[in-house]
Design brief:
Blueprint: H1 15-36, H2 41-68, H3 74-96, H4 104-132
Helix pairs in contact: 1-2, 1-4, 2-3, 3-4
Bound molecules: fe (ii) ion.
């Protein structure tokens, strides 16, 4: 069993977004794997860097999709994305500066960070997006 498993409940009904959410989940699992086997700081920094980069790419794709189908909650969703990105970037700075390390506490934070965002925020656009077939 992986640190974080995909659940049917995570599906927002849009294939490209589901695939990207799975990719984020994979990166979090890889980070957990590196931490669990006591991987070097550079390796941890590398995987966390991938998480930040992929999150940027994914948020921008998701925002484009919401925009394309005229989703009314776009501005609010963008604000939430930028706060989420800020949280991970702040941790990345701590890690790169040697003031923090990847811990189980951080991993649990990241797991909740992604799953709560999907289940609580992304789900709000589900019916709007799927009824307009923007995928
Ligand atoms: Fe989102």
């Amino acid at each position: 069993m992986a640190f974080m498993d995909w659940q049917a409940a995570y599906s927002v009904g849009v294939l490209s977004i589901d695939e990207q959410h799975r990719a984020l989940l994979d990166i979090i699992n890889r980070l957990h794997g590196v931490m669990s086997r006591g991987g070097a700081a550079d390796e941890l920094k590398g995987v966390l860097g991938e998480l930040v980069a992929y999150t940027l790419y994914h948020f921008s794709h998701e925002e484009q999709m919401m925009d394309r189908c005229g989703y009314p909650g776009l501005a609010e969703h963008k604000r939430i994305h930028s706060a989420l990105l800020g949280q991970v970037e702040a941790f990345q700075k701590e890690l790169v500066g040697g003031r923090a390390t990847v811990s189980l506490q951080l991993m649990t934070f990241l797991k909740d960070w992604l799953s709560k965002h999907i289940l609580e925020t992304d789900m709000r656009y589900r019916s709007h997006m799927t009824s307009r077939r923007a995928a």
